Model the fold of this input.
Amino acid sequence: MRKRLRSTVAAAAVPAFIALTAGWGHSAAAADRQGLIKEFPADVQALLTPDIPDGVIEALLKVRKAGADTFVLNDSGGELYKGEQMAYLKNWETITGWTIKDVAPSPDPGQVKAQVDSGHPQYDLFETGSNGDAMAEEQAGLLAKLDMNLLNPIIAKFPNDGYQHTDTWVQYSFFGVLVTWDLRKWPMSGPHPTSPKDLFDTAKFPGKRCLYKYPEYGGTLEYPLLADGVAPDKLYPLDVDRAFKKLATIKNDIVWWSSGAESIQHIVNGDCAMGVTWHGRPALRSKEEPNLPVGTSWEGVMLIDSGWAAPKGAKHLDAANSLVAYAFTAQNQCKFINTMGYGIPIDGSCIDDFGKKWGVTQEHRGATATRQDADYYAKNIKDLIAKFNAWITS
Done:
């Protein structure tokens, strides 16, 4: 996966920062910060914690002063949106006085193009399907420019672990495409699936397989190749015909899912004995349901990525910038990781035991086999979709 160089330019965002660079001293900066905070209602001020940069507070205040409105967020919905609410969305609503309307699922590049071509995009911020999608959307001129004067100082604090961004999109997490199985069939105390290879071993682990109904994002083409003996560092470019040949060995046992919520519910309902899912889905479900009958494994799985972007012509771009900046503060990322395992570990000291178990830790990274190649999908997704749809209906 190609790494993007991070910009280190941080433009002044508030008078406090200008004062500091001019040598006015810390007391002037503190006074200006407190002046900004006092412009919010008393019941909101407590949410403007010391970890939030002055520039982000100013951006939030600008949105609040614009007057209450509705912000439309297009993401994957389900557990993802619930986790986002718990981590930072509800507080952003309280701070700005706005209301967030969530729509799902997240759009593919063709849907983003339709929105932009209409001249009136129906959402203000959306979850990119992957960094590959974001690259394709950026190259097609479909994305709005983000306020990098606001975002660059925050992005500069990201760990040097391959998180990507440009001036039109910012990656917000890595996701493990975990193998899942029914613990009522194969409890952890006995023989149970351990890696994507087991998806194709119907003799040892009989039953239906729940796979993602799309060539990207869910290991749909990578896992059959890994199971067929392709080395992780030799996956790309994908041998698509070989992948379909391996998939054909379990085709009659496949149950296709189209949303993260379905990927877990199919296992719970007994529709599938095994499957794959994005790791945050069982994380949040297991927190709420300690006896959730879903086993998971990080061994030999793939990491994928996704980001935030605003469509060109977005109605509320200032609000989008403020939300992205607020979400990426270190404490809010910790809340996200501690809620469902998603997020960027900017400050490891605030990650709790749950976050260490479910987040994309160095231990989990070490267990994974590969990372999805964003460049490959940016260049080939249209052809892959056509081939996948032809195979699935054959």
Residues 78-96 form the longest helix (19 residues). Residues 30 and 145 are 31 Å apart (CA to CA). The chain has 17 helices and nine strands. The first strand starts at residue 70 and ends at 74.
